[in-house]
């Protein structure tokens, strides 16, 4: 296997978050959510990572976070929309739920139909419609976990939701769970509507896919590298001294506390032409991986953070 093909497979497996080119929302199939409930399919695992925070992982490795306050709980992201996430979460908490969608990609936003109270940036509304189609979800799951894809059928998928019913999630918003406050910040780049969540009392910053072990920055819905760097700098300044932990949505889920700073440095290296420029092709789109990685997914140079970017959009 060539080095290029190997790297493409690794990055796709760790942070697969792009739509299937050639499939459209028009191909979406109607799904009966009652069938999901009847089968009782709940393909999730959970681990408590703080006194009131539970990390939930689905069968494609995508992560969601349940944050509990005194009066209610927040579910941050809803995964690929297979099985009943709502039924699973209700086994973890009996508090009323509010759902926060960090961005409109398939692996974060596809399970919203079960929930009444949902927040997502309106900037990602059209992206949500494209990404959460039935065709896109089946392709994503098939690529990320083929064995799991073969074990499920159409009735196991939640129906595609209508984002027009969602409440707009905006930078500067605060969601009060009762003694636990979630402060919303913009982290544009991976998508235009991408949001980070500061868990104020827990002193933890949840970056979603906005700052990840492989930040994808080459699809049509992403910003250019220069704009992404500016977004990171703005977030870093706004949250300085407010957190001691950083959580993301893929890989191990935990990032170093200086991760934003390291990613900003990575942007500088790319803009100066000092990165490795590893060629990468994913579903017809060509990009560069900034730094070469080994079998353990870590950078060979020992550095922190990696960006998969469009070399034609560095100065955007």
TrEMBL record:
**Keyword annotations from UniProtKB, A to Z:** Signal
Signal sequence segment: 1-28
Domain Metallo-beta-lactamase per the UniProt entry, residue ranges: 61-250
Q: One short Pfam family name for this protein?
A: Lactamase_B
Which Gene3D superfamilies does the record associate with it?
A: Ribonuclease Z/Hydroxyacylglutathione hydrolase-like (3.60.15.10)
Identification of the protein by name: MBL fold metallo-hydrolase
Which species does the entry assign this protein to?
Answer: Selenomonas ruminantium
